[in-house]
Amino acid sequence: MRLPEPYKIKMVEPIHLLPKEERKKRLQAAGLNVFALKAEDVFIDLLTDSGTNAMSDNQWSGMMIGDESYAGCRNFYHLQDTVKDVFGYNYVVPTHQGRGAENSFFSILIKPGQYVIGNMHFDTTEAHIHLKKGIPVNLVIDDAFDTSKYHPFKGNVDLDKLEHFIDEKGAENIAFMLITITCNTAGGQPVSMENIREVSRICKEHKIPVYIDAARFAENAYFIKTREEGYADKSIAEIVKEMFSYAEGFTMSAKKDALVNIGGMIGIKDNEELYNRVREINISFEGFPTYGGLAGRDLEAIARGLKEVLDIDYLRARIGQVEYLGKMLTDAGIPIQTPVGGHAVFVNAGKFLPHIDHEQFPGEALAAELYLESGVRAVEIGTCMMGRDAEGKNIIAPMELMRLTIPRRVYTDNHMNYVAESLINIYNRRDNVRGLKFAYEPPILRHFLAKFEWA
After folding, report:
1. What is d(CA 364, CA 357) in angstroms, rounded to the nearest whole number?
2. For the domain that residue 257 is a member of, what is the CATH number?
């Protein structure tokens, strides 16, 4: 028996489904790009799980004791104590969100021409690496690209690729290793403790620093507990502490597993010199080190959310809802990344729409069609997101995906039923779905602001 959500609903927000003809007008006005839709145009919003969470009564009550002092607010020190307790790290620098953390941290860590290696960097992470004149390199295992194949930890770093890359390029030319947990671009796929441990060992031998992209750290810990031998009897808190013991620091968008609507941070284990450098540069980008672009009430909500997310009942319900949606789609024959990840179901749009070429963006086309069908908003993770290479050619994505990203504590299983039925309807007439072409293409992170036409 699947247990119900471990909470009851105290407040609701109305949502409305526009008539189909009106949805057509709104999508056309948005340049066929679902990012450009107004939130009020959308019925069920699965664009992202970033900042779209429902906060708890505990978090909302904490907001009422926000200390809005410019320097030294008490909520910062609560956050600092929480980071030490949850991650075992001595230092924290708050930022307005994960991108702020990457911008500040990468400014210090990356020298022009250096490589930044990882399992699979997300789009904004790659953009920040490029902006600092670094070179992002993905070393995820090959099984990650076979959406029909089962592997419990498709977010793992390929250790042979890692050692070969270090030998070929030289450790001195590598700025750092960034392990993304869970690995979003690979389909929200987790990284095993064994893999984190081995990556840390190899990098330590070559004096390469290891950092973690910690946006979905608790979901990764849940998969370790439920899938990796030796961890079934360990608590989520114990697993998190061990995961982060193998790294020297982390960047985090708190808008995911800290269960808040805004915020981020840089965590540093014990390197006081690095901490001071981060604080100094962060003042220019984010603000004084004890508020980092956030109100005191936001810092308090983050501190409380970091503890709430460790609850096994919450994680079982949250990831169980993602699995529930995934099972409905696979039962209908719809190709998705398997096993289902922690925060989203990734539909294999390339297999769903095999008649649409990579450069007509099947993931974008499916997202547009899903909105027209049902008012549901999803997002492409594919060739459009990948951008262009130095020669101006489209970088062809290894997988053409459409991500159905489920906000935390927001939607019910009835919403998931509606999403599944909508996709099944499209699947039954998939041969009629059209591809897209650019009407306007921004030079960087083009998928956010692009405008399309039907191909």
Report:
1. 12
2. 3.40.640.10
> What's residue 444's pLDDT?
83
Length, in residues, of the chain: 455
- Domain shared by 121 and 259, yes or no: yes
Q: Where are the extended beta strands (E) located within 61-112?
A: 91-95
**1 domain-assigned:** no
Looking at the structure, do residues 331 and 300 belong to the same domain, yes or no? no
- Is the pTM here over 0.90, yes or no? yes
Catalytic annotation, residues: 70, 122-123, 213, 215, 256, 447
Contact 179, 199 (CB under 8 A): yes
Q: What is the pLDDT, as a whole number, of residue 159?
A: 98
Q: Which residue, among 307, 304, 302, 278, has the nearest Cα to 211 in the 3D structure?
A: 278
Q: Which residues of the chain have pLDDT under 50?
A: none
The CA dihedral of 138, 141, 144, 149, to the nearest 10 degrees, is: 170
Measured CA to CA, the distance from residue 253 to residue 239 in angstroms comes to 20
Strands 376-377 and 44-45: parallel
In the prediction, which pLDDT does 356 show? 96
- Token code pair at residue 202: 């190899």
Please say whether the beta carbons of 334 and 424 come within 8 A: yes
Rounded CA-CA distance 280/260 in Å is 26
Residue 13 lies in a domain: no
409, two tokens: 């504590």
Predicted local confidence at residue 112, as pLDDT = 96
Distances (CA, A) of 426 to 60, 108, 266, 429, 431: 40, 47, 42, 5, 9
Pair (257, 293) in one structural domain = yes
